[in-house]
Specification:
Elements (H helix, E strand, L loop, with lengths): L3 H6 L1 E10 L2 E12 L3 H9 L1 H7 L3 E3 L6 E4 L4 E8 L3 E5 L8 E11 L2 E10 L3 H7 L2 H17 L13 H21 L4 H15 L9
Antiparallel strand pairs: 1-2, 2-8, 3-4, 4-5, 5-6, 6-7, 7-8
Helix pairs in contact: 2-3, 4-7, 5-6, 6-7
């Protein structure tokens, strides 16, 4: 069985200041090479039946201009699609800030692919100061873990969730990795690591605060 802690080291994490709808925004970017051909990764991330096996049940019209909904999670509109290569969607959770998700797959050879996931949001400065980019990034690390396992035939998805004893160390290590990405983007090291501590507490169920 894959050691899930090892999968974290294979992810490149970036934090970037950018624009969304002509307003200041923050992007968290994850890049990971997977040992699967691009067409297999693409269908795993765009076909409803396959998405539910590693992520969540999804409903709606999965074509450009259509709307989707992930069960108990986000919903939005399909904004762009470059079939086999990339898609971009709006990502709306409750009353959270405007955000967009962009997913890109690049073949690196016949049976390996580079996956890039970019989530851009207009985040309240107080929220960013409290939790840092890990508020979003930790969840996407877990999603990439789901893809990584699924493509290797390891049961995943809602029916096969790993227990807290396994996932809590994963969440803590992910939070720390996002603190380092924030520091690389210019964040104060002490503040970034304290934000990571709060993010870990949230994801492991010891904090009642709500992420955006």
């Amino acid at each position: 069985m894959v050691d899930i802690m090892d999968t974290l080291t294979g992810i490149t994490r970036l934090v970037k200041t950018t624009q969304l709808n002509h307003q200041d925004a923050t992007s968290v970017v994850l890049q990971q090479e997977v040992s699967s051909p691009a067409h297999d990764v693409w269908t795993a991330c765009t076909e409803a039946e396959r998405i539910r096996q590693w992520f969540l049940p999804i409903t709606g019209d999965l074509s450009v201009g259509g709307r989707y909904a992930l069960e108990g999670n986000a919903s939005g509109e399909i904004l762009e699609c470059n079939s086999g290569r990339s898609f971009r969607v709006s990502w709306q959770m409750g009353h959270g800030p405007d955000s967009e998700l962009e997913f890109t797959i690049t073949p690196t050879n016949t049976d390996h692919s580079l996956v890039e996931l970019r989530h851009t949001a207009m985040v309240d400065p107080d929220m960013m100061g409290t939790y840092g980019p890990g508020a979003v990034g930790v969840g996407w690390d877990a999603a990439l873990l789901g893809i990584y396992q699924y493509l290797r035939g390891i049961p995943t998805g809602p029916a096969n969730q790993l227990p807290p004893a396994v996932m809590n160390p994963f969440m803590a290590a992910s939070s720390e990795a996002w603190a380092e990405a924030a520091i690389a983007n210019g964040a104060d090291p002490a503040a970034a690591r304290e934000a990571a501590r709060r993010t870990t507490a949230f994801y492991t169920g010891t904090d009642d605060a709500v992420t955006s």
